[in-house]
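dude i think i finally got it to work??
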Amino acid sequence: MIPFRIFALLILAIGLACGPAHADRRVALVIGNSAYKSAPKLGNPVNDATLVGGMFKKAGFDSVDVRLDLSASEMRRMLREFAGRTRDADMAVIYYAGHGIELEGTNYLIPIDATLETDGDVLDETIPVERALFAVEPAKQLRLIILDACRDNPFSKTMKRTLASRAIGRGLAKVEPTSPNTMIAFAAKAGSTASDGDSRNSPFAVALVEHLPKPGLDLRKAFGFVRDDVLKSTGYKQEPYVYGSLGGDDVPLVATKPAATGPQANPQDSIRRDYELALQLATRDGWEAFLAQYPEGFYANLAKGQMNKIAAEETRASAEQKANAAEQQKARLIAERAQKAEQDKAAAAAKAAEEARVAAEKQKQIEQARTDAAEQQRKLAEAAAAKAQAEKQAAEKAKAELAAKQTAEKAEQVAKPVADRQMPEVEQKVAALSPAPASTLSAADLTKSVQSELRRVGCLSATADGDWSAASQRSLALFNKYAGTQFDAKLASVDVLDALKAKPGRVCPLICNFGSKADGDQCVKITCRAGYRVGDDNDCEKVPEKKPVATREDSKKRDQDRKDTESTPSKPQASGQIFCNSAGCRPVGKGCRIERASTSDASSVMSGRTKEVCN
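look at this
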């Protein structure tokens, strides 16, 4: 076996020697300030920062931090944190888009909360460019700062000067870096201003995204291409400029990719990347350039849908503009007391323009829906292509592993007879007495064992029947949730069984029905003291006292009692008088009275000449 071990070590050493080299670490910080509180809002810096940040991410940077609309304290904190990330980086880049100012030959970046009422406030409320140079200083190979801050500064017109001799320049001042391998790129040459352009992004940002990420292209040449594009797009009014110097070797922002030795990439990847770049630009020129390069195919159809969407938006904007013009014409005619016919004509034109605007808006919505559907179809197609590519690579990898295994087995078979001849007889006898490896569990036994362990840790309530059903899959998913594992719930594997056996007690929580609570591994009934009951939240709550409420039966009983009382004859009631005779005294009955009797009435002799007379 010794020759075979040496052969395996040689193969391992060759594989390690041929492995990929350690790639350079690249970090980037992107800041875009638009929402200024004491100055008019800028339209493009946030869009430019988002576009450039996406470019760095696609270029494969290890860390890209995009921050928008930062105050002075937030900018200082971002630069401090970024300086910590550049200590172990080979390349560090800072891109800033927003307002900048030059005071006494020093350049400053303006946060969104700056007021700059006086020239002295510049030192307290802004960030000097030297602070950005300090943040990229630890980088080993390249230190790059890109300033798209040469716009016309609104603060310079309102700022009060404490000294008449203190100069505030136009644009930014010239900078000469003192550290080697450091470059500072201005959107416009020192002493001049840059243009935001008429589109979503500035000409400088569009040119940066076009040329900087080209693999293997030296930065000095890339910025030269950026300069040419900006000059052409601005009518030779804006000229970007780069300060600093590099060595003799080419320094690309993105290194050239080595030739692929494994499975070849999908030929649609380059088209997809160009499509996504055009999608970020979202302009008619970008889509026309894409269709000129790729006139046919799936992505061409998607690009045509995007063009239809832009056309619908332009139609809607034109219709809205016409509607506004018609409204203005109508107001003018009314103000000038024009003839009624002209007013009616203007009203009809305004109505027609409004109907055209509504129709254009509906068409825009239709095109938006079509575009969204096409985008969804594109994502599904890309996902299917990626899945097919992954399956193809996995099949090729499995095929290569099988071939390597067969080669190793053949080598072992060739080397085994030689080793057996060299092995002493005693070692052969001992090897003959070695026990055979234990046989593995069958699929049904493994499934049943996993189900039994899931029952033990409280994640499965069904019996262990050896059938890996949907209930068993849900129980394994619960185990993943509460144990922090990521096993495939569709398969009962040996790794799952080992992980379950490693748990000494219950993992999944015990869930009890209403009216019961968990007590260890059992559910016990909740018992409340007198006057309390189990509430909706499964806790004891006091029983509310019931107030007497009149019912229909009570009113019926009251009406019946009144009728019975009215129908019963009234009982005799005493009048309050007392009548006395020879038999004794008694109350005078109801309806009777006492009268004086005549001397001839024999019955009244004993009663004191009175008698009881009743009706």
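The first helix runs from residue 2 to 17.
im so relieved honestly
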